[in-house]
Write a sequence for this structure.
C-alpha cells in the first residue's frame, strides 16, 4: 500500500491526538545522533528522539523515508542485515541497547515487535503464545503456562474467539485474528515496549478498528511505537508523532500539534498531500 498522503477530513479531526492519560511523563527510549548505513548508503541521519513511557508514538513519512529503519533499531533487528551499521546512542531506561554486554535475545523479549504481515508460527494457537515464555524460562509448570496463554489472548482481545479451539492452527485464523495472535505472542514474554511496523496495512477496515482499539488499551501498560502509512491512523492512536523525510527526523511533537500546527513546511506539505 502506498504512502500517499491525504488531508484529514472533518470527521477525522476529532481523533487528532489521542488523549494523554496513561503516560508516566518519563522517557523510556532515547535516541541521540542515530545514523544507519547500508554499506555505503546512509539511510538515517542524526536522529534525536525521546519516546515516552506508556504513550503511543507514531512514525510517519513517505515510503523509504527511514521510519521502519529507525523502528528496527529499537530492538536491533537491523543486526540481521550484514551490511547494516548503526552509530549514535539508543538507550532504554538509561542503558545503551547497543552495548556489547547486552543480550540481544533478552532485549527482543523486552522490546516486542509486530510486523506488517501477520506471521503466526505454523503451530497451534496455544503453542504460538506458549513458545516465547517456554524458551525464556518464564514459567515453572503447565498451569503457569496456561495462565500466560489465557492472559495474553485476553489482552489481545482474542480469548473469547479462540478459547474453544486452542489446539487449532494459528494460520487458520482470519487476517485480523492472526495479527491479534501475533500481538498476544509479543505480550506473552512480558515486554516493556511494543514496536508495530504498519500492523494494519494488510487488514480490512473492521479488523483495523479492532487493532486500533487494542492499541488504546495496551498503552496503559506498554510503551508503543508504530510505523503507519495512514495519517488518520496516526492521529487516532498516538500521543506523539515523528515525521521522517529522506532519512531525517524533520519534526517530532504532540500529535495534535504536528497535525494542526506543524512547525516545518515539509511536515505541512506531507500532511496536506502536496507530496507523499
Amino acid at each position: 500500500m502506498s504512502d500517499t498522503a491525504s488531508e484529514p477530513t472533518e470527521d477525522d479531526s476529532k481523533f487528532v491526538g489521542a488523549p494523554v492519560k496513561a503516560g508516566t511523563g518519563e522517557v523510556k527510549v532515547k535516541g541521540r545522533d542515530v545514523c544507519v548505513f547500508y554499506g555505503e548508503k546512509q539511510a538515517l541521519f542524526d536522529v534525536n528522539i525521546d519516546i515516552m513511557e506508556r504513550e503511543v508514538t507514531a512514525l510517519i513519512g513517505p515510503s523509504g523515508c527511514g521510519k521502519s529503519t529507525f523502528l528496527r533499531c529499537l530492538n536491533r533487528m537491523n543486526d540481521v542485515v550484514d551490511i547494516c551499521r548503526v552509530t549514535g546512542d539508543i538507550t532504554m531506561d538509561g542503558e545503551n541497547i547497543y552495548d556489547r554486554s547486552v543480550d540481544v535475545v533478552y532485549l527482543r523479549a523486552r522490546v516486542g515487535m509486530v510486523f506488517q504481515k501477520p506471521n503466526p508460527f505454523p503451530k497451534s494457537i496455544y503453542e504460538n503464545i506458549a513458545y516465547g515464555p517456554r524458551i525464556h524460562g518464564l514459567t515453572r509448570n503447565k498451569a503457569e503456562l496456561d495462565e500466560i496463554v489465557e492472559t495474553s489472548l485476553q489482552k489481545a482481545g482474542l480469548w473469547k474467539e479462540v478459547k474453544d479451539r486452542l489446539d487449532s492452527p494459528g494460520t487458520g485464523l482470519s487476517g485480523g485474528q492472526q495479527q491479534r495472535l501475533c500481538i498476544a505472542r509479543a505480550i506473552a514474554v512480558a515486554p516493556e515496549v511494543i514496536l508495530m511496523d504498519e500492523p494494519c496495512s494488510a487488514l480490512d477496515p473492521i479488523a483495523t478498528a479492532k487493532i486500533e482499539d487494542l492499541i488504546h488499551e495496551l498503552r496503559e501498560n506498554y510503551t508503543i511505537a508504530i510505523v503507519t502509512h495512514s495519517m488518520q491512523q496516526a492521529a487516532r492512536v498516538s500521543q506523539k508523532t515523528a515525521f521522517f523525510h529522506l532519512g531525517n527526523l524533520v519534526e517530532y511533537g504532540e500529535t495534535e500539534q504536528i497535525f494542526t500546527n506543524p512547525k516545518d513546511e515539509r511536515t505541512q506539505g506531507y500532511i496536506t498531500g502536496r507530496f507523499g
